[in-house]
């Protein structure tokens, strides 16, 4: 039967929406409660919706009963402090699973490449239902930072680098694309991440905000790119050697973040 997916994401695995006027909203992400939940980089997360409405970030399949990343329960103590972020996450009208704000500390390009991962959005997702993708709404004005997308984790061919000013809005099939953020700056980067179920509601939302599936990549100096490739290879080799020394095969599992 197959999953219900958005045609707009079929070609490249991502769309970029109209930029949001972030300056009109208060900095609600500074008022909510964070967990020291590690993902790709030095991170914390502040959940707005979780499996049972608790301030925790675990995958829904790790709860009892286990389920896919759908039907998240909104956390009143968080949403009352962040009504605008909650409104934006709910605006598409699509089913919401996990919804949270990520706080990412500065992360250079080479570290970002090592952090590239795919998400395990659709574990336990029944065939014939909507495929879970993720929205990324950049909250801080990270003009020197960019999101990195690859079809193949270690192959830079076709790499897409998407700029991250305040108000940047992306929707990404993060189970298909390897992804992470290069954050060049001194202050943390904040971004609202929402798991949405694909379907007519999400399609209409993408159309409303003029989603495009091709953007020009952020230009990065060749020496920075080359140094990043070398750093990724060095860290990958060190990781493989660590597991080999323990007599274990390296497994790079999908991220639950």
Kindly list the characteristics that best describe this protein.
257 residues; alpha+beta; three-stranded antiparallel beta sheet; single chain; Jelly Rolls; Phytanoyl-CoA dioxygenase family protein; 10 strands; 20% helix; seven-stranded antiparallel beta sheet; 5 helices
Mind explaining what this structure looks like?
By secondary structure, the chain is of the alpha+beta class. The chain has a single domain (8-245), classed as Sandwich (Jelly Rolls). It contains five helices and ten strands, in the order E-E-E-H-H-E-H-E-E-E-E-E-E-H-H. The strands form two sheets. A seven-stranded antiparallel beta sheet has the order 1-8-5-10-4-2-3. The longest helix has 24 residues, at 222-245. It is globular. The protein starts with 13 loop residues before the first strand and ends in a 12-residue tail after the last helix.
Instruction: From the alpha carbons, calculate the radius of gyration and give it in angstroms.
Output: 18 Å
Overall shape = globular
Mean pLDDT: 94
Count all strands and give the number.
10
Low-pLDDT stretches are none
What is the N-to-C order of secondary-structure elements (H for helix, E for strand)? EEEHHEHEEEEEEHH
CATH superfamily: B-lactam Antibiotic, Isopenicillin N Synthase, Chain
Q: How much strand content do the residues show? A: 15-25%
- What CATH first level would be assigned? Mainly Beta
CATH topology: Jelly Rolls
Derived structural class:
alpha+beta
| CATH architect. name | Sandwich
Placed side by side, the strands forming the largest sheet appear as 1-8-5-10-4-2-3
Biggest sheet overview: 7 strands, antiparallel
Helical fraction equals: 10-25%
Count of DSSP H/I helices: 5
Q: How many structurally independent domains?
A: 1
Distance between the termini: 28 Å
């Amino acid at each position: 039967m197959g999953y219900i997916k958005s045609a707009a994401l079929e070609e490249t695995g991502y769309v970029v929406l109209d930029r949001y006027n972030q300056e009109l909203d208060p900095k609600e992400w500074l008022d909510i409660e964070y967990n020291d939940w590690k993902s790709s980089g030095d991170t914390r997360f502040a959940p707005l919706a979780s499996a049972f409405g608790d301030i925790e970030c675990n995958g829904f399949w790790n709860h009892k009963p286990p389920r896919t990343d759908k039907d998240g329960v909104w956390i009143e103590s968080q949403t009352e402090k962040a009504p605008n972020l909650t409104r934006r996450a709910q605006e598409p009208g699509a089913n919401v699973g996990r919804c949270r704000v990520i706080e990412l500390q500065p992360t250079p390009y080479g570290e970002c490449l090592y952090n590239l991962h795919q998400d395990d959005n659709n574990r336990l997702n029944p065939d014939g239902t909507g495929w879970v993708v993720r929205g990324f709404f950049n909250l801080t004005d990270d003009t020197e930072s960019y999101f990195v997308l690859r079809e193949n984790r270690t192959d830079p061919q076709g790499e897409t680098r998407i700029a991250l000013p305040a108000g940047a809005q992306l929707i990404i099939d993060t189970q298909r694309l390897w992804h992470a953020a290069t954050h060049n700056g001194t202050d943390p980067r904040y971004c609202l991440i929402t798991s949405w179920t694909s379907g007519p509601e999400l399609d209409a939302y993408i159309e409303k905000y003029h989603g495009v599936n091709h953007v020009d990549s952020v230009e990065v100096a060749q020496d920075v790119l080359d140094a990043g490739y070398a750093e990724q290879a060095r860290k990958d080799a060190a990781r493989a050697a660590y597991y080999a020394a323990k007599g274990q095969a390296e497994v790079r599992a999908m991220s639950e973040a």
